[in-house]
Specification:
Layout lengths: L1 H21 L12 E10 L10 E4 L2 E4 L5 E8 L4 E5 L6 E4 L7 E3 L2 E3 L9 E6 L7 E7 L9 E3 L15 E5 L8 E5 L7 E7 L12 E6 L2 E7 L8 E7 L5 E8 L6
């Protein structure tokens, strides 16, 4: 009887071994080394400065940024499709994630502080390493005392005051890759605004920049735009804000800058 039991046990062990050899183990990408390392830097969208104490999470893997805003997540399953960064007082930012086994992936975040007024909008531009310098431009319509309107950009940053025209301000201008480059709108006039991005350095096509524009309001993220991967020109015309305050998609590459 004992010999029979031993035989059955050996048979079961053999079957399990054969099945494990034929069927690769894959539990959410954890088997067969199907994981990757993800790291990067988290900044404040209104200052460009590093943010410490930010929780960065992908699935069940999480970490916290250090004093330089840096984080690293180890053994992230390649099946994970998103990653998020969150901190009290800031709007959570979630990005899509595409990984391959043993990859070392860089994912940077720029977090917008929460907005407190219904009329406020914040436009955050980020991009890759090249081209080095992309510039945000907001065309503000005219009012009774400013008949030619106003263009918010690096040479005319606007005014950081909700009670004074143009009621918009370039919070941060980045010239060394990645961004952020941020414009905050405090109030909107009942006329059309236009927002576009200029490939100032022109070192590479803007279509290869991996540029992204995110628009935030009091309720959080409103719109996300990814730069088109085709088209020719130095200008990415992203959207309008119409007279009713609605965001109107444009998302096209132009050879000349938009005008009011």
């Amino acid at each position: 009887m004992k010999n029979k039991v031993k035989y059955i046990m050996l048979l079961l062990v053999s079957v399990v071994f054969i099945l494990s050899a034929c069927t690769p183990f894959d539990f959410n990408g954890l088997g067969s080394g199907k994981t990757a390392t993800v790291g990067g830097t988290v900044t404040d969208a209104t200052t460009g400065g590093a943010l410490s104490g930010v929780t960065v999470k992908s699935g069940n893997i999480s970490g916290t940024t250090d004093s330089e805003g840096k984080y690293v997540l180890y053994k992230v399953p390649i099946s994970n499709t998103s990653i998020s960064a969150s901190k009290s007082g800031y709007i959570t930012n979630t990005q899509s994630l595409s990984l391959v086994a043993d990859e070392q992936k860089t994912v940077n975040f720029s977090l917008s502080p929460e907005l407190t007024q219904d009329e406020e909008l914040r436009i955050v531009l980020t991009w890759g390493e090249s081209p080095r310098d992309l510039d945000s431009h907001l065309l503000v319509p005219a009012d009774a005392s400013h008949l030619n309107g106003y263009e918010v950009y690096y040479r005319a940053k606007g005014i950081d005051d909700s009670d004074e025209y143009p009621y918009a301000f370039l919070d941060v201008d980045d010239i060394t890759s990645y961004g952020p480059e941020t414009i905050t709108i405090f109030n909107t006039l009942n006329q059309t605004y236009k927002y576009y991005v200029h490939n100032y350095s022109g070192e590479a096509e803007i279509t290869t920049s991996n540029a992204k524009v995110q628009v935030y309001g009091r309720s959080g993220l409103i719109k996300t735009y990814n730069v088109p991967t085709s088209g020719s020109g130095l200008y990415w015309y992203v959207f309008d804000i119409d007279a009713n305050g609605r965001i109107v998609d444009k998302n096209e590459i132009l050879s000349t800058a938009p005008t009011l």
